[in-house]
């Protein structure tokens, strides 16, 4: 059928917040942040930029690479935990900007695993109905700075803003699909350890919720850390085993960019050589659903992968959600 990645794009807002800038805001140090997380700086959206603006910039670049315009899109999936509004969906707002009148649009919320979940859904749509879904846009976009408690040093140093986009197209040939194998999971038993408590129907906005900083990210860092390593290693092993592909055959490994210690631990356990592991956490921090899409665009534009090369993606986030996906360029 030939469902291929026809274009990728990414966008990082201009403003950079360094660890040294954070030293002036909370009781932290560049040394602590670098050694514990691998982060040196992160990009922050301007106050007037919403998630759809970041998504739009990334989508335009992906469409340009694909050589199609918005009117040719059949569906738009936006993975985000920071939508412009609770409703309407960021997908619909993006559709208007792109002039994608023929596309059906929705947001998908799977936190940091959002891009993998969205690729799985988009691929499934295209597989089931190849005539109906020829071109699908998948975007991971986040303005996490809008839901960070800037007084909480345990979380505010971790996150950044950005967007990554992928255009999937059915080229109508019998070339192999981009998706080789996937393994996705969720476990709602751990929904409390990585959560934004307020702003939904459980706890609508109130003076108290604002006073308690309940409209921001709360994370039990150590618990998440352990589960992240186990979950991503397990999913990667399953995918490689089912695809009958050895770790040494993977040209590029893109793990979710949450912590460089987590990335090193996974790569080591999977036996992926260090020079095959892609990292931009030092420049971008954790951009949740945008993280893998930004990395993917950077390796494509940087010429780090050639047609047919295996790329292994893995992610972990709130929900809990996690998974791995073996794709080919
Ligand atoms: O993207 C979704 C998935 N997210 C993740 O996978 C994140 C997983 N978790 C992590 O990456 C790590 O747990 C963190 C980076 C969040 C924290 O690192 P850690 O090594 O687990 O540190 P910790 O939370 O155990 O804290 C160690 C110490 C504490 O002080 P005491 O109690 O030992 O005196 C914290 O209060 O570090 C302190 N601390 C800080 N110190 C300076 C916490 N945050 C900071 C900070 N600056 N920003």
Task: Walk me through what this model shows.
The chain has 329 residues and is an alpha/beta fold. 34% of the residues lie in helices and 24% in strands. The chain has 11 helices and 13 strands. A 5-stranded mixed beta sheet has the order 1-7-6-4-5, sandwiched between helices. Strands 8-13-12-11 form a 4-stranded mixed beta sheet, sandwiched between helices. It has a two-stranded antiparallel ribbon with strand order 2-3. Helix 3 crosses helix 4 (90-98) and helix 8 (221-243) packs parallel to helix 9 (260-270). It is globular. The two termini are 15 Å apart.
Topology summary:
Elements: E1 3-11, E2 15-18, H1 19-23, H2 30-37, E3 41-44, H3 51-66, E4 75-79, H4 90-98, E5 104-108, H5 114-128, E6 135-143, H6 153-156, E7 161-170, E8 179-186, E9 194-195, H7 207-211, E10 218-219, H8 221-243, E11 250-255, H9 260-270, H10 281-284, H11 291-301, E12 310-317, E13 321-328
Parallel strand pairs: 4-5, 4-6, 11-12
Antiparallel strand pairs: 1-7, 2-3, 6-7, 8-13, 9-10, 12-13
Helix pairs in contact: 3-4, 8-9
The structure holds oxa(dethia)-CoA.
The site of oxa(dethia)-CoA (UT7) has 20 residues, from helix 2, helix 6, helix 8 and strand 12.
Can you tag this structure with a few keywords?
single chain; alpha/beta; five-stranded mixed beta sheet; 13 strands; globular; binds oxa(dethia)-CoA
Q: State the strand order across the main sheet.
A: 1-7-6-4-5
Topology pattern, helix = H, strand = E:
EEHHEHEHEHEHEEEHEHEHHHEE
Report the sheet-strand fraction: 15-25%
Span of the ends, CA to CA: 15 Å
Fraction of residues in helix: 25-40%
Radius of gyration from CA coordinates: 19 Å
Average residue pLDDT: 97
Unreliable stretches (pLDDT < 50, length at least 5) are none
